[in-house]
Amino acid sequence: MELIGAELVAVDAGYCEIRLPFREDLTQQHGFFHAGVVGTLADNTAGYAGYSLMQENASVLTVEFKLNLLAPGKGEALVAKANVLKSGRTLTVCRCDVYAVSEGQEKLCAAAQVTLIQLENTSDQ
Fold first, then answer.
1. Is residue 44 within 8 Å of residue 38, measured between CB atoms?
2. Averaged pLDDT score across all residues of the chain
3. DSSP letter string, 48-77
4. What pLDDT sits at residue 122?
5. φ, ψ for residue 45 (rounded to 5)?
6. Are 17 and 43 in contact (CB under 8 A)?
7. Confidence grade of residue 38 (pLDDT, cut at 50, 70, 90)
8. Who has greater pLDDT, 32 or 56?
């Protein structure tokens, strides 16, 4: 996330928000944020939302995600907002909406559903 310049805005129990300022090197041939960047942002935001409810000695991995691109990621930033839909003992399901911000207005550009697994007694490297 440091590589693409993403900024952690908020983390609360079952919620996360991450902002990504526009950079030309993160775009595709039409000048929109690249779908891979949008997907990375959605995956990470949902991951932190889910991780916020997991055990202290656990780590988290994504096991599945579905991304719907609804509109071009066009503007001065992307903002991703994720909520936990179901927090289970092993699997957690999250929803993440990604908004393109232009002139202070947020427009929904992508929606993701992400399934995470809690790895007990596993530390991140």
1. no
2. 96
3. HHHHTTS-TT-EEEEEEEEEEE-S---SSE
4. 83
5. -65, -45
6. no
7. very high
8. 32
Residue among 87, 86, 73 at smallest CA distance from 42: 73
- Whether the per-residue pLDDT at 125 is higher than 70: the answer is no
Q: How far is residue 101's CA from residue 74's CA, in Å, rounded to a whole number?
A: 8
pTM over 0.90, yes/no: yes
Q: Collapsing DSSP states into helix, strand and coil, what is residue 40?
A: helix
Residue 26 backbone phi and psi in degrees, to 5: -105, 10
Amino acid at 93: V
Q: What is d(CA 44, CA 5) in angstroms, rounded to the nearest whole number?
A: 13
Is residue 89 helix, strand or coil?
coil
Q: Specify the length of the chain in residues.
A: 125
Lookup result for tokens 């927090």 = 87
Torsion angles phi and psi, residue 30, rounded to 5: -100, 5
